[in-house]
Amino acid sequence: MTFPEVLASGFFVGPMLMEIAGKSVFECKETGYKAEVIFNLRGTFSSDKYQTVDAKITKNGEEVYKIWGNYYKELFYCGKDKVKKSLLKIDDIRGKSVPRYTIDMNQQGEWESDKLWKKVTDAIYKGDQITATEEKCKNEEKQRKMENEYLSTGTVHIPKYFVKDSFLGWKYVDFNNSKFNPDKELGDYEDKYHIKTLLKEQNECIDDGKQIKEELLTSSIEINNSPIITNKESNQLIDLKNELETLKNQLQYSIDSIQSSTSQYLHKQIEPLQRRLFIVILMNVALIGMLIYLLLH
C-alpha cells in the first residue's frame, strides 16, 4: 500500500493552493486484486485536472475496471463492456452516515470499548477532567497489570476474533471474500460477534431464537440493494437507548456549563457592589467618628 503526496503552491504568486498528487497502490495478494489510483495535478494554464483521479482495478494483471472523475463531485467507472456508469455522487452522501450499531451494555464483555471507557466518557461529557483522568489511569493500570501477569506466567494471549495470516498479518476469524450467490444465499448476519451467511435451505436462528423468514430477508435485500441483513427492532431500541443516554449526558454537561457560567457572571457582578458597600460603610463610620469628636469638643 502506498499513499500520494500533498503539495502546496501559491506562496508568492496567486492564491494558496493545496493538492493531492501522485500514485497510490492498494494490493491484495490473497485475491490477486490490485488498485492503482493516480491523483492528478492542476495544469499550468488549465484547472480541468484539479481534484480529479484516474484509476484502474486489475485482477492477476488483467484490467477489470476503470475509474475516473472529480473526488469532490462525482466518480465514474466502466468495466469490460466500456459502458460509463456513476460510481459515487459526493453530494448524495454529504451529511449522511451509517447508523451506529452497538451491543447492549449489559451484554458487553469486560474489555468492550464502550463499557471499558464509559466512566471516562461520562466524565468528559460532564466536563469533569479530574474524574476522566483518574478513570483513564485505572484502565491503563489494569491493562499493564494483565500484561505483566502474562509475562510472568508465560501465558500467550490468543485472540478470539482474529487469526494470524501470512498475507494480511491479522485476519478476522469469519473473513469471507467469496462472491455473494443470490441463488443459494439470503444474506449475512451477526450472531455473538460472528458474521454468518444464511443459506436458503437453512432454518437459522439469531440471538433471541426467532426464526428469520425468507420474505423478510428478501425485502431487506431489495430495499438496501445489499445482502446485509438490517438490525432487528430490539437492536434499534438498544441504539435508541444509547442515543438517549448520550443526549442525557450532553444535556447534563450543558446544564452544568450554564450553571457554572451563571455563577461566574453573578460573582463578577456582585463583587463590585460589595466593594462599593464596604466603602460606603467606611465613610459612614468616619462621619460618625467626626460628629462624635465635634460634640465632645
Walk me through this protein's architecture.
Among the domains are: 5-93, Porin (Beta Barrel); 113-153; 162-205, no CATH class. Helix content is 39%, strand content 25%. The protein is built from 6 helices and 13 strands. It has helices at 90-93, 113-116, 118-125, 129-153, 214-224, 233-296, and strands at residues 5-9, 17-27, 33-39, 52-59, 62-70, 74-78, 85-89, 162-165, 169-172, 185-191, 194-199, 205-206, 210-211. The strands form 4 sheets. Strands 1-2-3-4-5-6-7 form a 7-stranded antiparallel sheet. It has a two-stranded antiparallel sheet with strand order 8-9. Strand 5 and strand 6 (74-78) form a beta hairpin. Helix 3 (118-125) packs antiparallel against helix 4 (129-153). The longest helix is centred in the C-terminal third of the chain and has 64 residues, at 233-296.
Brief rundown of the structure:
By secondary structure, this protein is of the alpha+beta class. The chain is built from six helices and 13 strands.
Computed structural class: alpha+beta
What gross morphology would you assign? extended
Query: Main sheet, how many strands, which sense, barrel?
Result: 7 strands, antiparallel
- Ends apart, CA distance between termini: 101 Å
Q: Indicate the radius of gyration in whole angstroms.
A: 32 Å
The main sheet orders its strands as 1-2-3-4-5-6-7
Q: What proportion of the residues form beta strands (DSSP E)?
A: 25-35%
| CATH class value of one domain | Mainly Beta
Helicity range: 25-40%
Helix count? 6
By DSSP, the count of extended strands is 13
Q: What is the arithmetic mean of pLDDT?
A: 76
Instruction: Determine the CATH topology of one domain.
Output: Porin
The CATH architecture of one domain would be: Beta Barrel
Uncertain runs: 204-234
Protein name: Oxysterol-binding protein, putative
Organism: Entamoeba histolytica KU27
Keywords: Membrane, Transmembrane, Transmembrane helix
GO molecular function, one term: sterol binding
